[in-house]
Amino acid sequence: MAYGDVVVLDDVDLTAAAGEIVALTGVNGVGKSTLLTCIVGFRRPAAGTVSVLGGPPRDDAAFWRSVAIVADQPTWYPGLTVRELLELVRMTHQPLRGWCLPADELIEIFGLTARADASPLSLSSGQRQRLSLAAVLARPSRLLLLDEPEQSLDAGFRLELATLLREQYAANGGTLVMATHDHDFAMTAGARIVPLAEGRIAEGLVAEEHEGITGPVL
Amino acid sequence: MYVVGFTLVIVGIYGSDFLASPLRRLSQPVTHAAATHAAATQAVAGAGLVIGVGVGLLLLAQALGPLALSPADASWLLLTPLARRQVLRRAALSVALLATVAGALLGVLGLAMAGPYLRLAGSGLPGSWLFLSAVAGAGCCLAAVAAEALAQPGDRPRAVIRAVCIAVAVIAMAGAVAGERWSAITRAVTDVFGGLSTPVFNTAALVALALAAVAWVLLWQRLASFPAGVLRSDSARSGRALLAAQYLNFSLLFWIAEDNHWRGRLLRSRPWPKLPPALALAWADWRRLGRRPGPLVILAGAAVIPALLGVAVTGRVHTVLIAAALIGGAFAAGTQGITATKRDQDDPALLRLLGVGPGQALVARAALPSLLSGCWLAIALAVLCAAGTLHGWVWPLLGLAAGPGLTAGILRMARTARINPADRGPDTPMGSTPPWLISRMLSVIVAVIGTVALVHALLKGEAHATTVIDQCVASVIVLWAYVMIARALSR
User: CA B299, B302, B304, B310 torsion: positive or negative?
Assistant: First the structure.
């Protein structure tokens, strides 16, 4: 995978099983977000294959009913409230087949009760991130991709989120691949940590080389 | 640069040719033959149009600040120990200069519109009236802009000024259009014009200057403690808006306006009706628009503009001008409904979150702009019929039928990829044409193709039931073709 002449990812071989959580780690610019966008088909690799749920990523309704992504710097449709947005996500996925949480429960879990009738534009950056994460859990999915889910979240809620992902999303068969800089978050989520370095999976690298992650990563 | 320069020259040539007619009236010898109903209608409509343009400029100034700094200055200079007035002085003087020029032009144009009736009161048009009109116009505009700047830090004063501007525009435009039908209105207004004299002009100019002076003294004092927070947010917004305007990125302009509107608002959550996914998207668009009726009211008011153009300025019906105003107005109306489309385009994860395929989503997103542009065209054509410019009951139906065809161009413009100003386009005799300009022009061409039957009927000046059927067919084909091509290209 390259941007112009700059090769971002090269010789990456990654497999994730059903119910598994995979955490991509590495320094800024190493290709974590690019790998996520390749997995969902937003970018096409120059060489090699990407197989998601048994086939190449497709840009159609059937694919997106199984795959969900929270990208970096998410945006929102204007003029709708937090609750309406969550309910809209659930409605467009009817009939709901698979694990997901109702809007009321998500609002409570994600600490948005006081802002349920607010426009997302009125939320703080941390609340907007909570809303983005709540939205992907408002609908069923077999594969969930999160780009730095910990960003703007307070330390306490990061751990609550990691527990929720491990004990509910993954325990119900969902596969999660995330790019993260927070080792504690990844460990609490029970993730298999995949460090990236210079566009490759750096198997066997020790944690000190990866942004303060302590202990062996593989 | 060449392309922008060339465009400005062309606009200047056509604009001056267009305005030459009313300005010529000021230098022609006085004849009482001017006191016909047609001339009276023209004077009233012209005056209404000038007021409408003035109010529109004030609303635009408010949307941009009116006091704003460049993004770099707002980021750095506001946070330094420099005196706030010193930082803002240049911006304030620029606003004052623009207001003076615009006000003076509107003053002269207003005089030109009312020209024939002014001169009925005397033997000729005194040269001093021209000067005094310019002074009065400049003074009024300066005072109004200063009032807007004084109100800039407060949400409530801003809303009050906006409401007053809209009310004035609605009254002026409604009076102007009604004057084309009911002679009592034109008589009342032209009687006022006829009663104007040099003392009245002197008084108007003096009062306007006094108001401007008071407002600007107050503003100058206020500059020393103008709140930085307001300046930072307004400067960021106006910087983005001017950049969007520079690249004719109309959908981004509406996006900025919407973000500005919704920020900090509390709404009341309502349950969704049970709908299929694609229809749910269309319903969400409709709900969002219904919560923000202000632009719809302004759009409905703006539907009288095609009826005023041409007749008001030159006294003749300009079919090309009317067609251009109709297509442009309907394009603007439809663009109100595509901010969600632009978000779908700019953030691919957002639409996918809803699990709706891009093709289905595009069809769903076409519903609201089709309805908006179709309804706007229907209203504007009905006004043209009411004013006597067009004849027959079929025109409003033709407008409704043209909505979906026009929407193909609107969607295309909204879905244009982000602009890279550094991209070079094909070389032409005018220089390198930037790709963004080509893309914008293609969107307009698609819109015109989608409304081909309407445009043809407007240029001919007649429409029949078969024209409506032709337009329906054209709309369906163009919109369908656009959705298919867009879907194929995104694969």
Answer: negative
For B108-120, the DSSP string reads: HHHHHHHHHHHHH
Residue A209's pLDDT is: 36
Query: Model confidence at B120, in pLDDT bands (50, 70, 90)?
Result: low
Q: B259, exposed or middle or buried, with CB in 10 Å at 0-12, 13-18, 19+?
A: middle
CA distance B378 to B375: 5
The one-letter code for the residue type at B301 is G
pLDDT band at A215 (very low <50, low <70, confident <90, very high): very low
What pLDDT sits at residue B456? 94
Percentage of chain B surpassing pLDDT 90? 34
Q: Any chain A CB within 8 A of the CB of B156? A: no
Nearest CA among B262, B282, B382 for reference residue B341: B282
Dihedral sign from CA coordinates of B88, B93, B96, B97: negative
Question: Most A CBs within 10 Å: which of B260, B269, B344, as the mutation test of the A interface?
Answer: B269
C-alpha–C-alpha distance, residues A136 and A178, integer Å: 13
Q: What sign results for the dihedral spanned by CA atoms B337, B339, B342, B347?
A: negative
CB-based contact A16:A22 (threshold 8 Å): yes
349-388 of B, contacting A, C-beta below 8 A: 349-350, 352-358, 360
Tokens of A5: 């002449």
Which residues have C-beta within 8 Å of that of residue B191, sequence separation ≥ 6? none
Q: Would you call A41 an interface residue with chain B, using a CB distance cutoff of 8 Å?
A: no
Which helix (H) or strand (E) segment holds residue A138: the answer is none
**Would you list the DSSP string of A178-215?**
EE-S-HHHHHHTTPEEEEEETTEE-TT-BGGGSTT--S
CB B189 within 8 A of CB B116: no
Q: The dihedral of CA A122, A125, A130, A131: what is its sign? A: positive
Confidence of residue A207 (pLDDT cuts 50, 70, 90): very low
Residues 6 or more apart whose CB falls under 8 angstroms from that of B474 comprise B405, B449, B450, B451, B452, B453
From the list A64, A75, A119, the residue facing B343 with the nearest CB is A75
ipTM rounded to 2 decimals: 0.83
d(CA A215, CA B179): 83
Q: Are strands A21-25 and A175-179 parallel, antiparallel or unpaired?
A: parallel
Angle at A22 between CA A21 and CA A24, to 5 degrees: 150
Average pLDDT, chain B: 85
Residues 6 or more apart from B140 whose CB is under 8 A from it?
B54, B103, B107, B208, B211, B212
